[in-house]
Automatic annotation (TrEMBL), chains A, B, C, D, E, F:
CDD domains: KdgK
Coiled coil: none
InterPro entries: Carb_kinase_PfkB-like, PfkB_dom, Ribokinase-like
The protein, known as: Sugar kinase
Cited SUPFAM superfamilies: Ribokinase-like (SSF53613)
Pfam families (UniProt xref): PfkB
Keywords: Kinase, Transferase
Domain Carbohydrate kinase PfkB: 4-317
Protein's UniProt keywords contain Kinase: yes
PANTHER family: 2-DEHYDRO-3-DEOXYGLUCONOKINASE_2-DEHYDRO-3-DEOXYGALACTONOKINASE, SUGAR KINASE
Sample GO molecular function, one term: kinase activity
UniProt family annotation: Belongs to the carbohydrate kinase PfkB family.
Keyword Glycoprotein: no
Source organism per UniProt: Agaribacillus aureus
Length: 337, 337, 337, 337, 337, 337
């Protein structure tokens, strides 16, 4: 079971951040890592023992190769990386604390990934032995080519009978190539089995309206499922933000029949807030592949998400044991010897 | 409005501290920065968009020039720095956590600044186009020359109609050149429009006694204003120290007519405690220059002070947006993208 | 009084840990220190002003000499270190946070210390002018030779009338050379005056059973004292683990007549959890050497233990003043200038 | 004399390089600096005591502001920096040694500077009190707008009677917006008084041919001066590359009448090779402003260039004394105390 | 041709070294890498574009997994790594300079690799599609199991018709499990096609004697080939050690018919001396797979070896272009842009 | 023999230097060490196995204690350190390369050591079991008290029959408390057995004149011995400074009868130039204590001096084996395994 194969697709950016809590105005060196929503999911799953392959496009130079090496180090199968052009997408991250927000500056325009075009990726080959395909709402927002390429992938996955999941969360500020998410996303989501997204995401994309329903999330999910009958579960989480250093996390799911919620997990000393949503998505995929029980899955994902807040960088590098331990209620953080 | 010009005066020290939470007994390198109460105020204001110039005296060698370069990096106008002698003031900082206090060791004796003398600074020139002059009670404690030079500045400022503010907080241990603050400070404070100081500071300096008054701060402020009729507002803050890692901050002001207090801000994960009072002073100056409303000013200053606890180093390098956001009650520390 | 001499005995390991909160899978450098339960106690006491000498065996190469240099830097008398063989014991530490546990991997097999044999250490010489000898339950678990050598030391100490203390906490996983702690430990504990250990430790070692007694610790201590009449006090602490970043500490003692408990100390932002038990033991030894009052001793030790959680590395490097301040209830962590 | 004012114009890039001699494939952090040919010249001159102002365009975000702060730290007058768009030009540098070449990867496409347009810079204002204007052949290669903006500057400088110098060295690979340097450069060089460039640069730009002349450099310079009668001196250097760690430098000049050469300087242990040509240009400008004698100027510039090889980063931060000492033949590198 | 597959076999150690030129007695952190003669060869070949897979045995814990991740990062196929036991082999490296020698301390006893046994590795599977198998004289010196396992591999390789190469250089101090290299090595070398080793190595292993022959290396090689008729080429290099910072390298080969020598390459500023022999071996394998000409192969290998002296760490991470450039005589180290 | 005890006396300064070759204007952290001419000698001797104790005076605060810890780490007996006042002497070091000189800025005025007074050190006790006492010409230059205290020590050493050596090299710029070295030094040198100093030092101190003698050093030494009949050997070295990165070293001695010179040692890649004279002095003391032959001593000292150029920091931390190897002509820097 653990050698299930998951394929993810999306941009991987160079991540540059001043050390510790210092600011760009103070920095004389920057921490270097690489990350992106979908690759973060793949890395998390690889640390849990799955065969995780990531499809992306890097510049054909030593920066592109170093990015690939980062993914390899963190267990990804990089045989599906393609190369071309000269610029890698980047983001700069200044880490906040307490009331001081973290700040992120993206530089994605003109990146090698943004220039991806349909036909560049051999999806038939890459998805041949996969069990799961995962994408996010960021990819179709990057460029027309990326959106088209993502649609290609979903169609092949559907044809091959592979489960498809999407994290449809998207920042509207990303959509700047002339199309709106309302125009592009519904077709893509139509090919999905599992959707991770908030009530607001669903409303923005589908122009639905939960109409003052008490549990808007359930109602929005219901309407989404009506429009996209392939979708079997809609999943989200509640995040209570006490400060940049202290959040509380709670998972929730509508599975077409029932609504579930996990107890809240209290993350009192956040180390790195980035990628916690991706850790949640990875936890869901792992759970859906391994548990029969939706609540178990949700608890597993919520524990994974909470743990990611304590890991430096974009991706969740904790062990299966760490997640299981927390999922079963052990919050003590006892030293393992 | 933002191009208002503020001039500050005081010693800038080399700050040397072991990395992270390590102790001097463990260190093999030290973090290097430069700071001092008045320059910290100037830097904070410069980050908020004001024209901030700092007057100080550095040794005439590459250390002195590097110190100037630090101030320039952080936006200060350094055209008023003068040079002479060979030694820079220093302080060593070992950062504490929870119940372990931070420890500071000063080395200011014989510094280039301590040897400043009246006549060395061309105040007429430097204050010509300024809108505000700020000094603190540390400067007159350093040496007779520094005190005299500070008095020169205040007199010129008064003559030119420039607003003068003083942070009169002073450690009595600093006064060791033969005069007491009671002898020296009243004349200096007499030239001020705005005073930042505690009930205790006022009592120590003016030998007044609030006589068991319910609100001692208000009563002490009243008495100060009687002795120094130019003073229009007396401002302080309450700091609840739960530990070296957790403080609560609340601003308060007596404006001659009313007493104001802000709600408490809860700083749950302190990154660097040093310079938080200077951030408060800078917030007050910014507020008084930009808001009509005293409570707005106080809230702005309290938010600035709270945010400084999360910034490495002596000076508050947060943005205007950061402060405004917190001032209006958003404590969530949401990532800015 | 402060020049009392304490001798400790045990393995010192090389400690290798990724910087900050990063994981081994992310590290390209490791922080280097040296530590071990008994040497940690000695270093703590040396920082409090005692003459502390540690007896251990290091490999006869530049790593062994660097380890000695680490002990010397932290004030230990290293004249009693002996050298032989080629490998130092090691442990790898990945620091956790919140729900993510720290992880420790030991490599002690075949270390220079594990090959120590009776006769290698000149106990008569080394203990001649000592006031106190301290060992822990880890040492006899390492190898038959180490256990025998420890027994030698205790016998000499008893003969010379030196107070002997033991921290009998032991991980059962350590005992893998063919003997159990039940076979080995009672003889060693029989030579002790002061025992630090939990109810469970006592039960595991002596196969006693507090029989559902309300205060199991007291009852277990009573039974231990019956079997080991030299033992005068049994001491333990309660640790409430809210998370890897937040613990609460409380000291407790049975002195043969009375049971004491201190108030809880709340360690809200843990910097380094390792060695906190050793800091507690050192606090106890200091207290028993310096205070007449058992509760004072317990409060001192609990404060020492709490403070260690805020110090990087294995050993408690805080000052006497830091501990006294906290012991007397000042938890504010006010900056010392 | 030292308060002469020099204005430079050109792109400033973020410089990211792995620490020491490590490679991108090994790096987990990158050293951060900012540099560009023209700003490097300005910084060098500022360290020599001149008033140096740099004109550039940075993105209007915290990265752009941090870049400005870097220039301010290194003494530049940044009042002429303009802001717009969102991306900063970048270069990645992997430092070589001996036979392993350094490797540079540029990312300049779409940078804020490349989008500069005529009319954006108020040249009349910025050049009003300047004594010298310096540009390089890189700027017109970046974009049509940058070339046009550079021409504006030269015309204003000519009108105001300001000396104009150009380093016409250019990588032909840079010219990719549809025009060749042969089309663009002659007009710009026509407005120059001082030209720094090689025989090959001149031939490529002007399509001249020194016709097998013994001293091709002199002949090419003669032909350049015929086409551009304002040009008074053409200057170049010989670089003997024994390896990436060992170069030899020699200055040379044709001043319209005489040809000069300096003795070779032997740089045996190169620390950072980048920006050594800019240090040479800065040395020439300083020399031409301060010495009557062309050979003195050339020796000064060659010494400045040699010293830059020993300074980390793009810009030459050595002192006037350092250069004078080497220029007068003292190669011993004796410690200055 | 570049997707030729090479399999290597041997121990990979954790490499711990103080930063820069500092000594263990000064270090508070250690640089972390992983390396071993055979894996170094594989990594070099992977950087040149070959499919390189390394067979080794790591401890079954997070250190073993981190070691695997290091190999993956540097492009190795790690699907053949097996896991067991708890300790990784290690070496400590203190880097010398000029007259100060580097110092290496090995800790290989009891490592997971040393406990490898015949039958643990599925050689039939792992070598099935390989073109080349490479081992070194270090492996059979580590333990009886390692020697037996190596013999297994060679026999399978011979059966499958895969080219086998060996670097038979061995430190006699390594052979301490009761057998001598004279007893063990000849059988292993008998299965080789290509041997890398010195005259002295051959004499020590085979107890041959070149009998005062003028070119002892050729004569020893001839005798080796007589005893091991499968061997087709014997290859070595001359290293002139001017100091720890300056070496000269020259390749040499006896191919059964002719003796070749390359010109000397002068490495004037050594960055890291470790692994230079492995870089040479990798160069030879690449050359033999890609060139028809033995001298070309030798020049390629010598250039690869020289370049490794400028790369931090154990393995040669330079590009094919770097080596070709030097091999063709370009020693200038010109910046690549 | 190796447990001979050497006592040294002098100021130990905090050494602060930017990392690598960077400049103060670039630094955001400083490397921290402690050093001083006499303590450097003691540390060198301690690394060679002697019992070395250093007498100095540190401030009575955590900086003074950290300085002591540094000395302890590097094997010194620190039982003779005394404490008082609040400021430690400091020096800032910016490391040069090739033609760029290193730059040192001292801050010694008002240091705890400069305030030392006769009577503060119990010389009778400290020198009781010593075999050798060493001082340098820096100490009497620091303050009148330091000079007087040094004279005390020499007188006690003479009375106890302990060999006294002095390195009389002194920077005239140091003498600024009102007395000249000509007034102070002769009395101190009168009590010495061994003098290390140049012809120029001797002439400056004693106002002698070698009168155009061919070998001025020998003649100056002769005249010194006439004035100070206790002196038995005068020793110096020649340093050929090819650049800041490349020096050549040669020892020389006049022993009252013969003049010796060693061959030159060529230090081609200097790592740290500071303290190389102290390493030479330590080599001389070791040699004079251990060899019968003056040339052997000189060769040992020259090798020690050459090796120090490759060690970071002030003190020579190489092993006896390293020095012996080089002294016997092995310059290859072969890796020690």
């Amino acid at each position: 079971m653990d050698n299930k194969k998951v394929v993810t697709f999306g941009e991987v950016m160079m991540r540059l951040s001043p050390p510790g809590h210092s600011k760009f105005s103070q920095a004389s060196s920057l921490e270097l890592a690489y990350g992106g929503g979908e690759a973060n999911v793949a890395i998390s799953l690889a640390y849990l023992g799955l065969h995780a392959a990531h499809v992306t496009r890097f510049p054909d130079n030593l920066i592109g190769r170093s990015a690939t090496q980062f993914l390899r180090r963190h267990w990804l199968d990089t045989s599906m990386v393609i190369y071309g052009d000269q610029v890698i997408g980047k983001y700069f991250l200044e880490k906040g604390a307490v009331h001081r927000p973290s700040q992120v500056i993206y530089e994605r325009d003109g990146s090698a990934f943004s220039k991806i075009e349909p036909g560049m990726v051999n999806w038939e080959l890459f998805l041949k032995e996969a069990d799961w395909f995962h994408w996010t709402g960021i990819t179709p927002a990057i460029s027309e080519g990326a959106a088209a390429c993502c649609l290609e992938a979903i169609e092949v996955a559907n044809r091959l009978g592979i489960t498809v999941s999407a994290d449809i969360h998207s920042r509207s500020s990303l959509w700047n190539y002339g199309k709106s998410q309302h125009e592009v996303m519904p077709d893509l989501i139509g090919g999905c089995d599992i959707v991770i997204g908030s009530e607001k995401d669903i409303c923005d994309i589908f122009h639905v309206d939960p109409e003052g329903n008490e549990n808007g999330f359930t109602e929005a999910s219901r309407q989404l499922m009506k429009k996209c009958p392939r979708v079997k579960k809609v999943i989200d989480k509640n995040r209570e933000m006490l400060s940049a250093s202290h959040n509380r996390i709670q998972g929730k799911m509508w599975n077409g029949k029932d609504y579930f919620e996990t107890p809240q997990l209290d993350v009192t000393h956040i180390v790195d807030r980035v990628g916690t949503g991706d850790a949640y998505a990875a936890g869901l995929i792992y759970g859906l592949l391994n548990f029969d029980d939706d609540l178990q899955t949700l608890k597993f994902a919520t524990a994974a998400c909470a743990l990611k807040h304590t890991v430096e960088g974009d991706a969740n590098m904790v062990s299966l044991e760490n997640i299981q331990c927390l999922m079963h209620g052990d919050t003590a953080g006892r030293i393992i010897r």
